[in-house]
Amino acid sequence: AAATVVEDDVQGPEVVGGFALLLDRYDTFLLDQWGVLHDGKQPYDGALECMAKLRAHGKRIVLLSNSSVRRTNSYAGLERLGFGPELFDDIVTSGELSWHWLKEQALSRTDRPLRVFVIGRGQDDEEYVTSAGCVFSGPGTADLVLARGMFSVWRSEGDMQAFATAEQLLGAIDPALAQCAALGLPMLVSNPDQNRPGSGAPMPGQIASKYQALGGTVHFRGKPHPEVYAASVASLTEALGTPPAPERMCAVGDSLEHDIGGARALGIPN
Length: 270
Hints:
alpha/beta; Rossmann fold; four-stranded parallel β-sheet; 20% strand
């Protein structure tokens, strides 16, 4: 694998020549997907081979993603790129964590279904929301706001306004956000990224910033927030029968803010 950088709080960044030099230091690797393993269309050179060699040395691998989709969708997408399930132990997506949080909120209501104002992806919003036990609602009657994409705004089930670009949605969403903030609705953001890797297009993190500027309360799932790392540790603990030692884990990513910042905050080498 290409040269990588491991963050050390005492000595500063240390440049190493590849993953082979990390085998004795770490038992578990938390790998970002887009920007580390692939570019969304094909694997990066050496990525598949590197993962196979890590597995051959008995290393545990958990793949992390700030994707708004559930883990089953992520499995399918990775397999299309050649990353079979034999190359890793688990996948943790911000979309999966958000779905479980949404379902918990829905189960806590006993009088009626949870009503959600959805700013979404378009193609899979309906299955995502209804499978969590929620119903679509406009901003005036919703219980909470879900920001999981940049291409659709739902007023009710079957009533979706589609946007050709993320920039168009971002420019049109202010009145609805102001209405939700005035009503004190919490917002759940299933992808904290501010910009899409590569293109730089707006992502749901920018909607969250707008909402916070209006005084709204925002709940984040995904890197750099701790829930994604807690889910990784829980998965590894179940597989190993004992919690992994943080100092024997190594997080690898291409974002200083999300991948490196999140790992550093929890004392995980990166």
